[in-house]
Amino acid sequence: ERRERKRKLSKEMAEKATRELEKMQLKEKADIKYKEWLEKKRAEEAEKKKKEKEKEKEREAELQEKRTRSEKIFKEWLQNARNKPQPALNGYGFPHGRSTGSYIQYTNREW
């Protein structure tokens, strides 16, 4: 009976040790998978940030190009505007841009 109990106890101890070993192996596998997943997520995040930076650089380059074009066109317009003749203000009763007669004068006339 004592031997039987001893054998039974040693068998239970062996089973318990086996279960503990399996539990540890499962935990190690889970840790490895988690680390792989975490590494993958970090790589994806880094790639996403890299793409966002590239898009931002492209946007900045486009804006700079647009500004440059706008400035060039404005300078051309300004140069052309300087070369255009000014409208004549001294004509038909408007010396210096003002009317010479009164309003009544113009309304009483028959055109």
From TrEMBL:
<feature type="region of interest" description="Disordered">
    <location>
        <begin position="45"/>
        <end position="67"/>
    </location>
</feature>
<dbReference type="InterPro" id="IPR025259">
    <property type="entry name" value="CCDC34/181"/>
</dbReference>
<protein>
    <submittedName>
        <fullName>CCD34 protein</fullName>
    </submittedName>
</protein>
<feature type="region of interest" description="Disordered">
    <location>
        <begin position="79"/>
        <end position="100"/>
    </location>
</feature>
<dbReference type="Pfam" id="PF13904">
    <property type="entry name" value="CCDC34"/>
</dbReference>
<feature type="compositionally biased region" description="Basic and acidic residues">
    <location>
        <begin position="10"/>
        <end position="21"/>
    </location>
</feature>
<feature type="domain" description="Coiled-coil">
    <location>
        <begin position="2"/>
        <end position="104"/>
    </location>
</feature>
<dbReference type="InterPro" id="IPR045323">
    <property type="entry name" value="CCDC34"/>
</dbReference>
<feature type="region of interest" description="Disordered">
    <location>
        <begin position="1"/>
        <end position="21"/>
    </location>
</feature>
